Amino acid sequence: MARWLEDARIRLRLHRFERLIGKGGFGPYQILLVGQRVNRLAPVGPTGTRVQVHTGVRRVGRSSFTFEQVIMVDGKHVGGGDATVVLADSSGPLQLPDELIADLDEMQLPETGTSAAARPRPERLQRAHYSYWATLRSRIGDVDSNQHVNFIALATWYDEAVATFTSHSIGTSGAGSVPDLPPSSYQIQYLGEVTYPGDYEIGLTVRSVDTDSVHYELGVFHDSTCLSVADAIGPRGKLTAEVLEAAPMAD
């Protein structure tokens, strides 16, 4: 679903901004994703199912803007999310040009009072906050045109950490089938670049537990530096109360 949302954003035509770029009136710049949310609400169906992604703009700031998207199949809302984007050069974020703002205004959604995502709590940036760790090495296939690990590849790292935690907790590490407990909801904020080559650690702690779901807090670290944080909700499955009580929970 994250790929579908990205594909829909890439297909958007921003005619005024494109003309400005064509005339050399803005740039050079990079398009950077600083945060995203992806929710899977229902199964989509078999391969070949026709999927529609609807995209609008929720917020436009001086140097960033936020898309909001929904995924529909046969009139049913099966998923969605949002993405906050900045344009930047080597000195940092750039002020959005008037032409881009005009294009985005045409896609503005009705006001709902939704605010921008809050900055991560300070403890989320500290290794001591996390109780379980998975080690990963960046791969050349993860690198995108901006020369860092692509945000979708990075989302799979969080999946890897949850899968490692659940396998270890249920006792199937190294033997038996992998528990099918991938998160259905992610809210991710990107704080720095994850690059190639590099060795990284993904920290995980259990935030809370419901009858059917587990709420995780995760972070990507290079040594002591936190480069990304995520909140995820996944199915509880065979994670017993004893197992979850043994995993220290976030305060």
From TrEMBL:
<protein>
    <recommendedName>
        <fullName>Acyl-CoA thioester hydrolase</fullName>
    </recommendedName>
</protein>
<dbReference type="Pfam" id="PF13279">
    <property type="entry name" value="4HBT_2"/>
</dbReference>
<dbReference type="InterPro" id="IPR029069">
    <property type="entry name" value="HotDog_dom_sf"/>
</dbReference>
